[in-house]
Design a protein that fits this description.
Layout lengths: L2 H24 L5 H29 L24
Helix pairs in contact: 1-2
Length: about 80
C-alpha cells in the first residue's frame, strides 16, 4: 500500500462522507437509511479516492523518482510505480 495514500485517507474520508451527507440531507432525505447509505458509500470510496490523489501527486511531482528500476525515457501513464 502506498504510504501517501494512507495519509490522504484522513483528508479524503471526511470530505467524501461529509459531502455525501450534505447532499443527502439537502435532497430532503432525513431517515436513517439514506444517511447510513451516504456514510457507507463515502467510506467505501475513501481509499480509492486517496489512492488516485496519491498517484496524481506523485505523477506531477518532479522531485519524486520511480524506484522500479525502469528508465524514465518516456512518460507512460499505464506504468504502475512501486509501492513506496
Amino acid at each position: 500500500m502506498d504510504r501517501l495514500s494512507i495519509v490522504l485517507i484522513f483528508m479524503t474520508g471526511p470530505a467524501l462522507v461529509g459531502g455525501l451527507l450534505i447532499l443527502v440531507l439537502s435532497l430532503g432525505y432525513y431517515n436513517w437509511q439514506p444517511i447510513a447509505a451516504a456514510i457507507a458509500i463515502g467510506l467505501i470510496l475513501t481509499w480509492p479516492a486517496a489512492y488516485a490523489v496519491s498517484r496524481w501527486i506523485k505523477r506531477d511531482d518532479p522531485g519524486w523518482r520511480s524506484r522500479s528500476g525502469k528508465t524514465d525515457s518516456k512518460p507512460d501513464d499505464s506504468v504502475d510505480f512501486p509501492e513506496t
